[in-house]
Give the backbone structure.
Amino acid sequence: MLVTNLEIVPGKRIQKHYGLVQGSSVRAKHVGRDIMAGLKNVFGGELKGYTELLQESRQEATDRMIEQARAVGANAVLNVRFSTSSVTAGAAELFAYGTAVILE
Amino acid sequence: MDYSNPQIPEGINVSKTHPLSEFALLTVGVFGAITIIVLILGFFADKLAHYIPYKYESRITINYDFETYDNSPLQQYIQSLANRIAAAEQLPEEMRISVSVVESDTVNAFASLGGKIVFFTGLLEKIPNENALAMVMAHEIAHIKHRHPIRSLGRGVVVGLFVTLFSSAIGNDIVSNSMGNVSFISQLKFSRNNEEEADTTALDALQQIYGHINGAEDLFKILKEQESIHQIPEFFSTHPYTDGRIRHIESMKQNVGDKEALLTELPQQYNSWMNPSESNMNVNADL
Amino acid sequence: MLELITLIVLLALGYGFGRVAELRHYRSIQSREAQYRNLPAIATKFPDPSLRPRETNLVTGNVVISVDYFKRFLSQLRNIVGGRVKAYETLLDRARREAILRMKEDAHSQGASLIFNVKLETSSIYKGKGRAIGSVEVLAYGTAFMD
């Protein structure tokens, strides 16, 4: 599966559009990470636990988007966008969406 | 087309001000402004509280859930002392002093709204002579005379309102906490002034009753003994330094009274009043 | 009294550690930026039509950075008087550049020579107690061209 955030793929022609495909993942951090984050809030610096957590859940959102694209029979997802929104305190939704297409 | 990646100079998106200088400017500015506002509000609340008629004040009754020695000989003795001092301090007719003695280890006494004065036995046990007791009493009555309880209540309400409104408006944790503390510390200035005012009035009253102010410093020696455990800076304290208060008395002694004058003893039964036997307790209950 | 001491200790710790961490981070950012000097990240979504990459792929980089206690205190004070919140400028600058660097690392590991349509997304993380938002996540993503 080809995934890109461009609207074209150089040298390839889009044969068919399947419309929007999307993937989402809502994750909360566990208490241990909160405690570490509390410490970091004093000293400052990177919250590695959070970075990894968001990376993993974003990967999951992307994977789900790809799964949708595969299910409709596409072989590429174009113009992919990510969006993050906090649902409640301590939980975030990671969202990925794009256009499923068939490339030549 | 040529795609390149030049180096962008540092510091375009970042201000060059040193964080510490910004910190100094902001803390001094914000907390200075809060202090000034609290002092101004406190000043006006203090002045206005003076105009609340005393009869309204007497209606605000605070029920202290204490075990008291009501109508015991001890309480009667202290009440009679209070009446003498109230006369010496020329309290208005409507200000009636009622003294309660409370069983507690606390070495303290306080004056409250409506002319109520509470003595803890912890303090009474340590009193060496009547002059020291009269000093406490005269000090507390002076608080009532100058209407310090209602004034501090008025200040507390006005400043508290300001702090609450302001904190909820800014809605962040660290600063609103610090703001509460800053306003609390600024208010202490009023409290210390009140204590000094009460001390001065009290010493005048002692001079009138006994003709000297000897023994007044004994009270502060007791207080100093209590303090020695943890001394906090005057700036953070509701009361002026005890040392300063003792010096105040010493300097007043230079001007007034007979330095050699004898102290007035406490009544002979004073100590036995403090630890009533079982039978006495029964008598009290009957009374 | 005790509260004041705690506050001063926290501020001093925040200032000391935060400053050291920031200087070290900037040094690391600058050296890695030099290392990826020949990997341009372009914000346009129309690559030159003459480019014929062997392969294209989505590359991402993200980072969550928290501000220290000292700067949080500064920003809260600044909140009252208004104006430029200088304390957070370095936080966001560092986070964005770090995220771009991580995206470039991702691209470099796949043998890319160009990244197109770079997008940056910033979101605040720590919205728990006290509404004090002191951490940001920056995500950088784009399409890497491999040739």
About this structure: Chain C touches chain A through 48 residues (CB under 8 Å). Chain C has one domain: 2-146.
